[in-house]
Design a protein that fits this description.
The strands form six sheets. The protein has a six-stranded mixed β-barrel with strand order 3-4-11-5-10-9. It contains eleven helices and 30 strands. 22% of the residues lie in helices and 31% in strands. The chain is globular and about 70 Å long.
């Protein structure tokens, strides 16, 4: 029979154990809460909305060749359209889907897939040489002698550079700047049909070049949103900065141009084809360029050519994916996605089967449906304290933040081959039309086999480095925000 003292000691021991267990549970809960706080980002709701006032970046660029980047519809753009003519967010997202459909079409042909869904194929132009819809960001370069400044869309998913040219033999859309007139430049020359350069047009435009009666080479390029440009293939002096001038730059001098180019004068192709700007300037810049897209449509960024002066440790590189070999696209090997610091349970085969490209012109990141479903579920769980509202076009996870001054958003992370981790805070995870409709900036592809696309919302504010010579792409901390 137990003595009173031993019973008391037993009770004391049991009480102590219970207390220690409760402390352990409390400690565990505090650790979880601390981790959740560390892997989330609290911002003012108003900061998620676009501003009507231009706020240029105050960060100094390094000593390389650097051009200012602005959003073509933002207040920093010199070519911005009247408010009544500017596209709505719904229209922007519709254009974005046209671009995505076009990318999927091009990738399926390159990889030998012929089973594109009829619903996707029916939205594409009938012309087999179609490329992408026009992008979102513009830079200003000089063309001709004397130099004529032109604002052009830059696009990593396109290879060919062109601008509208007088006399606009057939048609020119309305652009903000005066149209380039090759007859007023002392350095412009047409390319002949017999030139090797003319034959290169097939790979850069997707169309076989034409030929005039005077043997001038004629290009034609059509985009996924049905925009197009047709004109003379020529060479001219290109001026990026006062110290960076390139004679005999090959480009298209458009005589018949129509489409959704937002008042810009044309397009700069930054793809991998021999006619792209990257390849034509390889002798000087070593086939290396980088950009920092503006964090918001009311701020500025930069497009820079040549290797960075920043410490190499600041940029984390991942090899180009083999899935895009033989294409103009830049591929990534995605290996995982995290929400609030926790890796989602997505089989590695989901990402390896689809492959991933990075694209400056696609707005919203597209994922295989299996991956998107896991992301959406985890994101909604982390955002359960905020009320869901109606979808915005293809964005199905939207919140009404009318009653909130601040919002705490879980960070989303992309793990890439080579141990690279790209951390996405609220500014890179959300797409807002208004306070009452703030949406997760991701969408699902129609099937798990279509290529995933890392879009420009997720790239905003980061330094993204394309090293074609090294066969790799790098991500660095914000360099323009």
């Amino acid at each position: 029979m137990a003595t009173p003292i031993s019973s008391f000691l037993g009770f004391l021991l049991l009480s102590t154990l219970v207390f220690l267990c409760s402390l352990k549970k409390l400690e565990g809960r505090e650790t979880i809460e601390s981790n959740q706080l560390y892997h989330s980002h609290t911002v003012k709701v108003i900061s998620l909305l676009p501003s009507t006032i231009c706020s240029p970046s105050t960060k100094d660029t390094d000593k390389r060749t650097s051009l200012t980047v602005v959003h073509k519809h933002g207040p920093c753009s010199q070519i911005k359209q009247d408010k009544a003519k500017a596209p709505t967010l719904d229209e922007i997202l519709q254009e974005d889907q046209s671009r995505v459909n076009s990318i999927h079409s091009r990738m399926s042909k390159k990889l030998g897939f012929d089973d594109l869904r009829e619903s996707e194929a029916s939205t594409l132009p009938a012309k087999s040489g179609s490329t992408l819809g026009s992008g979102n960001y513009v830079v200003t370069v000089g063309l001709g002698t004397p130099k004529k400044d032109l604002t052009l869309i830059f696009d990593t998913g396109s290879d060919f550079t062109w601008t509208q040219c007088k006399p606009c033999a057939k048609s020119c859309y309305q652009q903000k700047e005066s149209i380039f007139d090759p007859s007023q430049s002392s350095t412009y020359t047409n390319i002949s049909c017999s030139s090797t350069s003319c034959s290169q047009l097939s790979s850069s435009t997707g169309n076989i070049p034409g030929c005039t009666s005077s043997s001038t080479c004629v290009y034609g390029i059509q985009y996924g949103d049905s925009s197009f440009s047709v004109g003379f293939f020529g060479k001219e002096k290109l001026t990026l900065t006062s110290n960076d001038v390139f004679n005999n730059f090959l480009f298209g001098c458009g005589q018949n141009n129509q489409g959704l180019f937002g008042g810009s004068a044309g397009l700069i192709g930054l793809g991998r084809d021999p006619l792209s700007l990257v390849q034509q300037t390889a002798a000087k810049y070593g086939r290396v360029f980088s950009y920092c897209l503006p964090l918001t449509s009311s701020s500025t960024g930069s497009l820079t050519f040549g290797k960075s002066a920043r410490p190499s440790s600041a940029i984390k590189f991942t090899p180009f994916s083999k899935v895009t070999e033989g294409t103009s696209f830049y591929g990534l090997d995605t290996v995982g996605i995290s929400v609030a610091g926790r890796k989602l349970s997505i089989a590695a085969s989901v990402f390896s089967n689809s492959g991933t490209i990075i694209d400056s012109g696609t707005v919203i990141t597209r994922l295989p449906p299996t991956a998107y479903s896991a992301l959406k579920t985890a994101f909604r769980q982390a955002m359960k304290n905020y009320p869901l509202t109606t979808p915005l076009s293809l964005l199905d996870t939207c919140y009404d933040l009318t009653k909130y001054d601040t919002v705490t958003v879980p960070k989303i992370g992309f793990s890439l081959n080579g141990g690279v981790y790209v951390d996405l805070d609220a500014s890179r995870a959300l797409f807002a039309s208004k306070v009452s409709q703030v949406c997760l900036a991701f969408a699902a592809n129609s099937d798990d086999d279509s290529v995933a696309i890392f879009g420009n919302v997720q790239q905003r504010g980061l330094e993204v480095v394309y090293d074609l010579a090294g066969g790799k792409i790098g991500f660095g901390p914000p360099s323009c925000s």
